[in-house]
Amino acid sequence: MKRNKVVLVNPGIHYVGPKMNQGLYPNTAIMILATILHNAGFRVKVIDGRYLTVDDAVESISREIEKDVAYIGFSVMTIQLPWAYRVSQAIKSRHPDTLIVWGGTHPTLFPEQTVEDPAVDIVVVNDAAATVSSLSLNISEGTELAKIPGIVYKENSNIIKTPPNQDKDDFSNVPYIDFSLLDHKRYSRNNNMAIEVFYGEKYKDSIVYPLLAGLGCSYRCTFCINVILERKYYYRSAEEIVERIKFLQRNYGADFIHPMDENFFINKKRTFELLDLLEKENIHVKWRPQARPDHFSDDYINVDVAKRLDRSGMIVAAMGAESASKEMLDKLRKNLKVEEIIKAVEILSKTNIVPKMNFMVGLPGETESDIKKTFQLAFKLRRMVKKSCISVVSFRPYPGSELYDELVSKYGYVPPSNLEGWAELSERELRESTGYESFEHYKWVENPRDLEARLSVYSHVTMYNPKTSARIRALISSIRLRLNFFPFLSLETKFLNALSNPVATLSIIRNRILKK
What's the pLDDT score for residue 33? Predict the structure, then answer.
């Protein structure tokens, strides 16, 4: 090979800033692609941008650019775009001959728009496991790219789009992650899957490793990327899962497994086979899967089965409930009923498994009544299980979805037309748990400012927190939401901050008095 080194970058999020010694593993796609390329004989360097500022990332990547570098690859979600774009621009400016390759959700949805920017040379569209080795080999040897399916690239100022990649990602081409390619010990300790506040200090010393046991999803929710990209559901067997758990325990001391499946319990047969194997082999490990509320039912995960899951080490059931409005659930094609959401929490209340349930508000077509129903249900579920996490966040317009298209056609939403526009939009307005737009642009919502206030207030009652100031704030927030009363929020924040740190507050007051 002429150039056999590939640098893969997991982009940061511009408004969050570097997170030191804490957080999730890099994007699953980055870890899988690194493993595939390593197995194919490439030298691979993974750079995690969540621990780096844009300037620091540029320096780190620049140090890896040598004569044998084939390209710098980024896996980019829309939320990561400003960071990835600014870094790509800077690398191109410093090293104009270095190829920049983008893959991931955003460039898949906007391939031509992405590749027409000078900062990006090649876009990999949709699934990449079957593409990455042949693409890397062609780049390495300087051969023609036209025969590589599923890519968009520039050639003599022309944009070339090859035929779609017909080899979809499944477990015939998606390997287990090779953790030797990562600084995995940094991620396994203080991992935020094990230090969520509702655990208390219970799992803070856990050694956490991810396990990808499923790809895609068989449900067809209108807002989901799996529907947009027509991804099918693939899964590993119960035997494979158990063998991988034993491997992670034996080689890395793992005592906390994070299944990366988008819905771990789709396959009922596998669920019961897994439980049988865990019990038979006396495997002790904590695990935190994602689920659907309607899987907790009398004919599937009933109280007895939930207790078996509890004994197996399952500590959280992370679920997307989305709405308390039947009309909204139907519009989302969630195939879910409100009573099934309540049933799930009722069943889990008989166990030690924490219900972690997510709702979203601010959907197109949603009424004020729909929004109130969702907050009311969230409160009801919180009362049912003290140590629960019932969150309500704003709907995020996701490019490529039916709902996104509705915003454009019915409400006059105008999305950016190029990478620079997406970066500027996000840098100006993107805020965690509030959406891809500031609320003044939520034209499809009846009272966007009231919605913003509700979400801000509800964020204080989302998770169980034993601290006195947090409990007082949760109580005040509950009253505010019930009365729909949102003035004096900044004054409330100052008072509760003073309550939570009285020594610092008294010091500030003392210094001000002395100055006078």
Answer: 96
Report DSSP state, residue 381: H
Answer whether 318's CB lies under 8 Å from 268's CB: no
**Is 189-382+397-406 in CATH node 3.20.20.70?**
yes
Alpha helical stretches, state H, 142-289: 184-188, 225-228, 238-252, 268-280
Cα–Cα distance for residue pair 268/509, rounded to 1 Å: 61
Cα(317)–Cα(338) distance, rounded to whole angstroms?
Answer: 17
Helix residue spans in 12-154 (DSSP H): 28-39, 54-64, 81-94, 105-109, 111-115, 132-141
Question: Which of 53, 32, 35 minimizes the C-alpha distance to 44?
Answer: 35
pTM: 0.88
- In this predicted model, what pLDDT tens digit does every residue of 96-147 receive, in sequence order? 999 999 999 899 999 999 999 999 999 999 888 889 999 999 999 988 899 9
* Pairwise CA distance, residues 142 & 85, whole Å: 25
What fold does the segment set 5-161 form as a domain? Rossmann fold (3.40.50)
**Every domain range in the chain assigned CATH 3.20.20.70:** 189-382+397-406
Q: What is the DSSP string of 17-51?
A: ---TT-SPPS-HHHHHHHHHHHHTT-EEEEEEGGG
CB 344 within 8 A of CB 356: no
pLDDT tens digits for 319-356? Answer: 999 999 999 999 999 999 999 999 999 999 999 999 99
What is d(CA 340, CA 354) in angstroms, rounded to the nearest whole number?
A: 17
Task: Kindly calculate the radius of gyration of the chain based on its CA atoms and give it in whole angstroms.
Answer: 24
